[in-house]
Amino acid sequence: MMNFFAVFLGDGMEKLRNNFIKTLPVMAGYIVLGIGFGILMADSGMGLVWSFLMGALIYAGSMQFVAVGLISSCSSFLTIAVTTLMVNARHLFYGISMIEKYRDTKPYKPYLIFALTDETYSLCCDDNTMDKVDYFEVSLFDQIYWVSGCVLGSLIGNIIPFDLTGIDFALTALFVSIFVNQWIHAKDHIPAVYGVMVSLLCLVFFGKDSFLIPSMIGIIIALALPRKMKKEGE
Amino acid sequence: MSMSNLYIFFSILIIALVTVGLRFLPFLVFNNRVKVPAFIEYLGKVLPFSVMGMLVVYCLKDIKFDSMENFIPSLLGVATTVLVHLWKENTIYSIISGTLVYMILIRII
């Protein structure tokens, strides 16, 4: 029994370590972006408790930055709700892709769904070796980084001795490297091409503040096309 | 001050609820009792590829082509990330090199 326990714990530690390493790029991006967020909050007159609450309850990076602007300009609750809907609608996609992967993940499931950010999604969406404990640890690590960053930004943001401007590019680089990685290992490149092309087209037509939802609709339509043609050909 | 604590609190609550709602909706619609339609299952398999492309575009949406400093750092940062990833296939290397190139370029251009 003791032996079994030791083996189990050892295995758990090994998993924990691997998942920690897996989340390191997110740590770099989240802590820095979180600090940026904390500084912005401080500049807008909102203190540490609000930074913590937002990181803990909203836990959506880009939306939190938008939220600072909305709140400090005293926008109406309706505007706030609609803007959130627009900015975060892409999370519907993450949910759709994770239905199967998160199917048997009790008791972690509610937290996994709550904590499904762009970055956590990008780490979990195409790795078939992960089990529910891996999903949970990756999700939790990521949120710990984010909340730490937000709080740290509120605390020490204005006294960081060196200039970190531009380090938030780490998140762009994270998505780019995952995109390239998927490209290398995918048999079918069409969905990736659709993702880039449709989004670029929508960016040109709808502008940078409102192209996400048109892009999502466009991508679904584009993805539906070859299927239909295949069905007709059968 | 017009920005009362109660106003901030309710704003945060609304954003949190809408975000959680969006994250839970697909799981609530296609819960364990309902068979997931074939098209949604298909979307689940191919969307990760499309979404990553969309996220890359989303991250680069603020690029402007009106002057060098507004697009060279981002484009070369992305190019470095891509090349290093093709070379090493290691996410950490790709991210560090791309970010460094970007951070250096925004300071010298």
Structure characterization notes:
- The complex is a heterodimer of chains A (about 230) and B (about 110).
- Helix content of chain A is about 75%, strand content about 0%.
- In chain A, helix 1 crosses helix 9.
- The mean pLDDT of chain A is about 85.
- Chain A contains twelve helices and no strands.
- By secondary structure, chain A is mainly α.
- Chain A has helices spanning about 1-20, 25-45, 50-60, 60-70, 75-90, 90-100, 110-115, 120-125, 130-155, 170-185, 190-205, 210-234.
- With about 110 residues, chain B is mainly α.
- Helices cover about 75% and strands about 0% of the residues of chain B.
- Chain B has four helices and no strands.
- The longest helix of chain B is centred in the first third of the chain and has 25 residues, at about 5-30.
- The interface between A and B is large, with 89 and 68 residues.
**Quaternary form:** heterodimer
Mean pLDDT level of chain B: 89
Name the beta content range of chain B: under 5%
User: Uncertain regions of chain B: pLDDT < 50 for 5+ in a row?
Assistant: none
SSE-based structural type of chain A: mainly alpha
What Rg of chain B, in angstroms, do the CA atoms define?
A: 21 Å
Biggest β-sheet strands, sense, barrel of chain A: none
Helical content of chain B stands at: over 70%
Q: What is the H-and-E element order of chain B?
A: HHHH
Q: Main β-sheet of chain B: number of strands, strand sense, barrel status?
A: none
Low-confidence stretches of chain A: none
Distance between the termini of chain B: 41 Å
> Percent helix among the residues of chain A?
over 70%
